[in-house]
Specification:
By secondary structure, the protein is mainly α. It has two domains: about 20-50 and about 105-395, no CATH class; about 55-100, no CATH class. About 65% of the residues lie in helices and about 0% in strands. It contains 22 helices and no strands.
């Protein structure tokens, strides 16, 4: 297959134009001051067929040569204790840990701390943004979701999938967690190898994978888009919900995800430094993505119904109410056109909760100190994570 033929094939499609000319994309351009064009398309599009080869080699050397539990223990040992050039380990292991144990000169851990504090002090709004804007909005990009579909993520269930995403996000957004050998660093390396394991499995077992249209499974360009979701899209969602942030916090959020992306093996030239770059990069990527298909709708409804399946809340009326609130936030944050494509249910008084939240946030910011908000946000987010982990790790919940 000629990999040079990739074009911005959906640039003239209604879903692309509407998003960038009248919808959330237009708002992102105004928010970021981005200057969008296709002049750098070829510079980025080649990464649609690029993957983390180092991660893939480790999976072949470690996971495919012994039982999975033993391989996992071996990797954990490398992560927590480090790897040196003199160790008797595969070259792939030396390559990955040579990269991740060597902190690049551009990394500023004080700036990362500011980004982590923003994630914590926005408390439940951070979790709403992740779920009802970043995650469900991502389902509108049909090709991006193909690895989820072919690895049968729907069978695993939204509760488990949400728990895993939350576990990763919380652990990489705590202060000092990205220092070498710390918890966030560990989550980044493990996630990187999970991606490689999934990619190799897809290539091996799913013969109908359409590389020409879908790119390589979990390719570098799709990874870039995913992590722009955690930075640019997340940040704009917080703003929509009435949260303010300082220039330092904003820089810190992008810096945090740039370093997480580096640890995950995403090429550095794909990792934006700020909202302007992120919007310009995202614009190019969206031009190769069709809008939602039937799989997108299934994923979106699986996430919406997670509230009904999740036993954290004891009573049915509580679960139904939580689902209603998530639906309200989804309509408030996403374009109506996207919600209609994903077949998000229409509900009464859908703006009441998110608009009330905006008003509350303005008052909360003026009356409670930043330090107190960070402390409470961290506590509340850890409580939500603990509840999810108790359900999914200590039971046979599916």
């Amino acid at each position: 297959m000629d990999k040079s033929i990739l074009q911005p094939r959906f640039r003239d499609s209604a879903h692309f134009k509407n998003f960038w000319e009248t919808g959330n994309g237009k708002q992102l351009i105004e928010f970021s001051g981005a200057e969008v064009s296709f002049k750098d398309f070829d510079k980025f599009s080649k990464y649609y067929y690029d993957v983390d080869e180092i991660g893939d080699e480790i999976v072949k050397d470690i996971y495919f040569t012994q039982p999975f539990p033993e391989a996992s223990k071996q990797i954990e040992n490398y992560i927590r204790n480090g790897v040196s050039e003199n160790d008797d380990v595969p070259e792939s292991v030396k390559s990955l840990f040579g990269q991740t144990q060597s902190v690049p000169d551009w990394v500023d851990f004080e700036l990362i701390k500011s980004g982590a504090e923003l994630c914590m002090r926005c408390n439940v709004d951070s979790l709403i943004s992740l779920r009802d804007y970043c995650l469900i909005g991502g389902y509108d990009y049909a090709y991006l979701n193909k690895p989820l579909i072919v690895t049968e993520a729907l069978k695993k269930g939204a509760v488990k999938r949400l728990s895993e995403t939350l576990d990763f996000w919380v652990n990489v957004t705590r202060p000092d967690s990205l220092l070498t050998h710390q918890k966030g660093y560990e989550f980044a390396i493990k996630t990187r190898l999970i991606h490689s394991y999934a990619r190799i499995s897809i290539k091996k077992h799913y013969k109908n994978w359409d590389t020409k249209n879908w790119g390589e499974p979990i390719n570098s360009w799709d990874m870039m888009a995913t992590y722009i979701g955690f930075s640019l899209v997340f940040l704009y969602s917080l703003k929509k919900l009435g949260n303010n942030f300082s220039e330092q916090e904003e820089k810190g959020l992008f810096h945090l995800w740039k370093y997480v992306g580096y640890l995950l093996g995403i090429p550095e030239e794909l990792l934006p430094d700020d909202k302007k770059q992120a919007t310009e990069y995202f614009y190019l990527w969206t031009s190769v993505q069709p809008s939602a298909d039937k799989d997108s709708v299934l994923l979106a409804h699986s996430l919406l119904n997670e509230s009904l399946e999740n036993p954290i809340l004891k009573f049915d009326f509580q679960r139904r109410n939580l689902r209603y609130l998530h639906i309200c936030c989804t309509w408030f944050l996403l374009d109506d056109e996207v919600c209609e494509r994903l077949e998000i249910p229409k509900v009464k008084n859908k703006n009441l909760f998110p608009v009330s939240k905006k008003i509350f946030n303005k008052i909360y910011e003026k009356t409670i100190s930043r330090k107190a908000r960070i402390k409470k946000g961290n506590k509340d987010q850890m409580k939500v994570l603990t509840d999810y982990l108790n359900i999914t790790k200590n039971s046979n919940f599916h």
